Amino acid sequence: MRIMQAPFNCLTPDLITDSIEEAFGISLENLIYPYPSYINRVYGLQDTDDKEYVAKFYRPGRWSQQQIREEHQFLQDLYLGECPVVLPIPDQEGATLQTLNLETYNPNSDQIDELIFHFALFPKQTGRAFDPETDEDWIRLGSLAGRIHVSGRKSPKLSRYRLDAFRLKYYIDELLKAGLIPEESLSDFLFITTKAFELLKNHNESIQSMCLHGDFHRGNLIYNSETGLSIIDFDDMCEGPAVQDLWLLLPGHHRDSRRELELILEGYTEFMEFNQEELKLIEDLRFFRMIHFLHWQSQQRFDRAFYQHFPDWGNHAFWIKCIEDLQDQLLEMGG
């Protein structure tokens, strides 16, 4: 039996606090508050002067140092463009990205492997979730997306992936190679995903890409009555069509959210032009997100707590429901 060791299983509370204290020259209380995070590990911390922080440990192997530095540079560009973002804290030498090197035993090879964690520290942003209730709220959300894209349009080409049909195919191929899909569901999965790939490829052919937030939904906005809205979590920053940073704000499918989308675009076009052709991508991108999430789950299934949150993941009933959901979404795409 092959034993898989998930990287975050090696990250202990002492390692977390020691790494932060050494990198940033601060003294922390012995309290760590884990935050829910799909891919990375995020912790709330407090120093001995009662100042609060958020530490982010990036999943090893997901992004290179260069790619994370691109994220931090984009945050700096947005800040200089008066976009309400939360900047990572620099160390005494001005570096915002730190590294923790560990040696771990690999039972598969009976050898010691090096495990590298990149991490960053942010000031804690207090506030609450933002739920749009008025037309002005929806317009405000569109304005924020527009302000992100003012800087995104100027950003140099990223070394991260481009959100397109070929990235979708990469996720599909990875799921197939992992051998996770039951034989009785495989032909349906192949038919649906092949059709979705072709639709996304055709719909996206003439659409320009820019640097995006990539995961711009309302859960990544914090509202404070004194400071207003702040945008957080640029971990999924990538290149892609502008509409990716708009459709995630919607309360439902495109057909059910036309009024909200109209208001979002009203705010967006105060800052940026919008190509109406991109609207045909909304349901394609929803399909992309479903496959993206499946791929993420397949990568994290060896984490210690994964099956506590997803106890039925990967079983027969799971894949039946998954195929049904993908088929329904393919119909939304026009397939």
CATH architectural category of the largest domain: Orthogonal Bundle
CATH class category of the largest domain: Mainly Alpha
Instruction: Calculate Rg over CA atoms.
Output: 21 Å
- Strand percent estimate: 15-25%
Per DSSP E runs of 2 or more residues, the count of β-strands stands at 10
Order of helices and strands: HEEEHEEEHHHEEEEHHHHH
As laid out across the biggest beta sheet, the strand order is 1-2-3-5-4
Function: A protein kinase that phosphorylates Ser and Thr residues. Probably acts to suppress the effects of stress linked to accumulation of reactive oxygen species. Probably involved in the extracytoplasmic stress response.
Protein name: Stress response kinase A
Pfam families: APH
Organism: Gracilinema caldarium (strain ATCC 51460 / DSM 7334 / H1) (Treponema caldarium)
SSE layout and pairing:
Blueprint lengths: L12 H12 L8 E3 L5 E6 L5 E6 L7 H16 L17 E9 L4 E13 L4 E2 L5 H20 L10 H13 L5 H21 L6 E3 L8 E4 L3 E4 L6 E3 L3 H4 L10 H11 L13 H19 L5 H4 L6 H18 L2
Antiparallel strand pairs: 1-2, 2-3, 3-5, 4-5, 6-8, 7-10, 8-9
Helix pairs in contact: 3-7, 4-5, 4-8, 5-10, 8-10
Describe it.
- With 335 residues, the protein is α+β, with helices and mostly antiparallel strands.
- Helices cover 41% and strands 16% of the residues.
- It has helices at 13-24, 65-80, 135-154, 165-177, 183-203, 244-247, 258-268, 282-300, 306-309, 316-333; strands spanning 33-35, 41-46, 52-57, 98-106, 111-123, 128-129, 210-212, 221-224, 228-231, 238-240.
- The model is unreliable at 1-5 (pLDDT under 50).
- Its main location: cytoplasm.
- One of its GO terms (molecular function) is protein serine kinase activity.
